């Protein structure tokens, strides 16, 4: 166990999710690795490649020297190009090669995390630049759990929607909610928007917009909100992680109140890169 207990929840969540990914993909036959996921342009193999690649970078391994093809329609930014290198370099790998590399990476990374003695505020390298160790581990827990869910949907094997990774992901996504409501959707001053989320991970949160147009997250119930948006936790995740558009899950979202405001919120709901 790490000497800093504050890091342990993220490490435990990461461990739970990455081991779940390994269990999901180990029995897959070659063709199943090519199943499409909700990540644009990515198959099951590509999602696992992404997870392996980022964990290798956290281990300090050198990045692959690899030129991307020019016809990857989903690669539309420098960050996307950065991410895609670790994915594209493994597109020719067989199922046994993928599972072997995943297992070996899990062993190496687990050993590194067990021996982690740095202060949580230590700056470490990450794909988005230098961040604190605490933030890096939280981000890895979120990323691995979200991709576990991508794989589960692609393989039709639902589960772990209330796992430790789910709780960390919920808390991170909620931090972005005031910005979605106040800055992106331009909710009016002195208004409130309620999110009523059901399912394996239930919660209700209110975003209150003050007189200056700034949003603040509140766990208390609001009387007379401008709009209440009700949806299940998996749909909330898929929207917040940019996996689907509002129109694709229209039957899973209930809106009470200001319809145009709700539509503006849902159109700007994705907050993960």
From TrEMBL:
SUPFAM superfamilies in the record: DinB/YfiT-like putative metalloenzymes
Domain MDMPI C-terminal: 169-263
The entry's keywords: Isomerase, Pyruvate
Keyword flag Isomerase: yes
Start and end residues of each Mycothiol-dependent maleylpyruvate isomerase metal-binding domain: 15-152
Keyword Iron listed: no
Top-rank lineage group of the source organism: Bacteria
Sample GO molecular function, one term: isomerase activity
Name of the molecule in the record: Maleylpyruvate isomerase family mycothiol-dependent enzyme
């Amino acid at each position: 166990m790490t000497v800093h207990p504050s890091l342990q929840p993220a490490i435990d969540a990461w461990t739970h999710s990455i081991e779940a990914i390994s269990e999901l993909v180990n029995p897959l036959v070659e063709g199943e690795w090519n199943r499409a996921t909700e990540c644009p342009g990515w198959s099951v193999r590509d999602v696992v490649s992404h997870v392996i690649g980022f964990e290798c970078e956290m281990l300090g391994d050198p990045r692959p020297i690899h030129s991307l093809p020019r016809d990857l329609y989903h690669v539309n930014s420098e960050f996307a190009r950065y991410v895609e290198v670790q994915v594209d370099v493994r597109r020719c790998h067989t199922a046994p090669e993928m599972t072997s590399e995943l297992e070996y990476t899990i062993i190496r990374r687990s050993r590194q995390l067990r021996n982690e003695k740095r202060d949580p505020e230590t700056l470490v390298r990450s794909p988005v630049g230098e961040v604190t160790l605490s933030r890096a581990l939280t981000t890895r827990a979120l990323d691995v759990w979200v991709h576990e869910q991508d794989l589960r949907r692609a393989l039709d094997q639902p589960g772990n929607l209330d796992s430790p990774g789910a709780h960390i992901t919920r808390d991170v996504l909620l931090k972005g909610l005031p910005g979605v409501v106040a800055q992106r959707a331009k909710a009016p001053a002195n208004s409130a928007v309620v999110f009523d989320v059901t399912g394996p991970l239930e919660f209700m949160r209110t975003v209150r917009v003050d007189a200056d147009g700034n949003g603040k997250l509140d766990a208390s119930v609001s009387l007379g909100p401008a709009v209440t948006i009700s949806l299940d936790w998996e749909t909330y995740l898929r929207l917040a992680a940019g996996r689907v558009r509002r129109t694709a899950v229209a039957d899973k979202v209930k809106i009470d109140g200001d319809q145009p405001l709700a539509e503006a919120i849902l159109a700007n709901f994705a907050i993960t890169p």
